Amino acid sequence: MPLEYRYRPAGGRSRVLRLGPFLLLILLAVIFLLSSYGRWWAYAPEESLVPDWKSYFLREVVSDAGRVVNTDLPPADSPLEPIRIFVSEGSFSKLAQSSRSRQSGEDDVEVEAFLQSPTTGLLPCELSPRGYSSWHHRPEKLSLRVRFSKRERSPGYRWWELQRPEDVLAQANWLPEQLGEYLGLVTGKSTPVRLNLNGADQGVYLRTLRPGERLALENGRLPGLFFKGDQLLKDSVWQTSDDWNIEGDSSPEQLEFFRAFLGQVAGGATPEALEPYLNWKAYTRMLALADFTGTRHFDDRHNQMFYLNSYQGKLEPVVWDFNSLGLMLPLDIEINVPFNRIVALLFRDPRLVFERDQALYDLLQSGRILERFEAQYEKLRADLLSDRGLINLVSGGGPHGITLVEEFDASQVPDHFSSQKKLIQGRLDSLSSYLRDARYSVTVEGGNLQLSVFGNVAVLARRKSGEAFFLYPGMQPGEKHLDPAPLEYTLPGSEAEWEFANAVTGEAANLTEAPAPSPRLISLNPGPVSVDPELRQVSIGPGTVEVTQDVVLRESDKLVVKAGTRLRFHKGVSLVSKGVVSFEGTAEKPIVVEPVGEAFGVVGLVGPGTGGSVFRHVKMEGGTTTYWGGVDFKGMFNVYDCPDLLLENCEFASNSVGDDAVNLALSKVQVRDSVFRDVPSDALDLDGCIAVVENCRFLRSGNDGLDVMETTMTVKDSTFQGCGDKGLSVGEESEIEVTGCAFVECVTGLEVKDDSTNRIGDSTFTKCVTAVNAYRKKWLYMKGGYAQLTGVKATDCDSGVKVDSFSKVWLEKSEIEVDQSSLPRVFTQGRLSLRAPSVRL
Asked: Domain 681-841: which topology?
């Protein structure tokens, strides 16, 4: 019997109203209401905030209908890298169910899948849910973690994270990372991609790298440790290292170093007390970036991340999940807010605040934020207009500052872009105005000037005779943020002898009446700080000098060791310098560094202040290794993070223990006319360097004569003889050019591996077990070693060229045999090009 309703209008004929279509509409409306309301409960149970059902229902109806009507088809020529994932329906249901019921601390479910992209090809992988918050786990657009199997071909990565963008334009996290890279900070390396899951378009995602070796390398760093702190159930992450995830191979010394850092932060240390642990320059830039983009998303309870490598020995902050540009917080938020304990410490030192202000000004002048923002929008626009899963996070108040999700349809994207552009311009105008405020007052007392500085930024006082000093304002608590407060200074001379300018912008400073001294001042007063501090020179020698205790030199020190000096280090004693070191020996009067009895510690140079250091005619032996102030000195002689180093006519021999006799890292290096001999392990190790090695001899090393990773180098006219493993070992994305070298009686003359590119010319291999070996050592790298051999000759070697399936070798005008199994990967046509030009220093 059909569902119908009969009625008779007044004075009219009987009519029939069929109820089926109306009941169907009512049923669909009820289902939609339950689905919409259920979405709240299923994916945000922790929020415990029930929205008004009428407004929520209306918003869902409008946004869902808008997404259906207004969303374009996916662009056929998208500039974004396409990523396709294939997973069985059963596995996807399992993944979605796991994501829906995910609880904090619960183990993630992993399902098997296949991933295809232009950079990886088709590879098996495992998928799991990614993200803490509810919006990452909605089945219409899941955030995913991808793990690649080590049993398969390497895509160059172990992990990918595919994150649903938390803002409509997919820039709230991407853009701060771009600006962070400009400032030299470590970032998460987010890249927008387009995801397709089982043939269904999922729209725009952000692909990020998990903390680990690959993330360090992508940031131009060497492999190190990443510390990630999250603890939403406590007041802070600073109390114990148990609240931190640690990625990387750590030593007991490094873990103790990190625990000591946490103790300093938790205990309310001074900025000076944190200096041995924290890279303050990087942190001031991190704060500038946060102020510039309007975020406080690395508070005391979550989203704290630091990177540590053993060559520099200080923690660097990582730009991670910034959620900026008006996301969760309005873009016009105040600056000078101590939103975590480290930031609060920073504000106590006016010199650090000044560094923050300088970085802010750099971003304003050269960061090109609007240009980057507009260019990225144009790149993503077509993909955003075809994305049915656009959301924007907004602060919903509630317990623990819970974040709510605002859903968008594609038709709203252009207006949202225009609105964001205006907000960014307003932020730039506000910060520009802030940095222009440099105020001071001056009075004369007893023949000296008494100055008070109390604007937003520092004042540069320059005397006409040439002296120049920075004079900083202080800070005091305000209603919602810290306010400037006066600091007092004394300068010699008369007012006519001095000029005063804004130390940030260079404009004239504003002379005005000083406010009363603040009773709530939180800032220390460093006194006038010289713009060009003089170096303190320390001279040693000539003659015999007994070194009985560690010598530690500051960045403002310069050490000069004179020709004819014999430095006799006692057991375990080291020389460590952050400033310039000059060992100026001569052929007739070399400088000798030796132990008294048992092995001494190390000679170590650390940091950019060592630039210009020179070691000429130095003979060194008998040292070992040590751990000092977060730096792991791996050799007897070490130089890390030096912009300009020269080793000339030096001899390094017979170190006691350690991976290397000489370990140089993150430096620009010239090594000329030097000898490395009779060492138990590697003779010279170069990590992350730009280097020239010329006319050197590597004799009788226990392992490698010269070992390099992440290095660009030219090697000329050098000899590798009697090396217990490799004469020259090249790995980890290095690029080298070798000419006129001899490899004699080495187990392996030359070994190239792990995406290294090598050009070898006019060189000989004599009586080596293997002349040249090209292979892949680490799964992380997609390729092994690539080498071009031109004019190379091998004599009396058991094996000539060996090449594994991940590597390639090109031969030109060379006399060298090729192993039969390697023939398919050895070419006589074409040439190999270096990605970087030859190094000339």
From this structure: Pectate Lyase C-like (2.160.20)
